[in-house]
User: Fold this.
Amino acid sequence: MAMNLSNSVRSGRRSRRAPMAEINVTPFVDVMLVLLIIFMVTAPLLASGVPVELPDSRANPIDQTPDQVTISIDPTGTIFIDDERVEAGALPDALSAIDRGADGEGPVIVLRGDRSLQYARVMAVMGELNRAGFNSISLVTNSSSEAP
Assistant:
């Protein structure tokens, strides 16, 4: 005496589709992959904006800190603080404008000099950094696998 009630209930009402309870993740994955590619391409450009051909060295890498200031010297000898060009003779004034922070020691200075520069030019900049009171200076180089 079993009766099929599903046919009789369906005939009295309109048949509706059940709501889809699945999430389509394909568009989400596509968007995330595009964002990943964008960040992979732009991240190296944000680290240093001044094109400098660094010398080679076998030194161990240093950690980057958020409060560091990058000073770059391009092949022509022009000085940049982060990405801002410093006019000739204005380096002492530009260094005095750098925020020293609450402890008064100042940020870590990262010095990037082009390999074609004369040693005297890099030392002149380091001397100005020392006169301004910045004693924590890191020199940036490319890594090298062979000893000089």
About this structure: Residues 26-47 form the longest helix (22 residues).
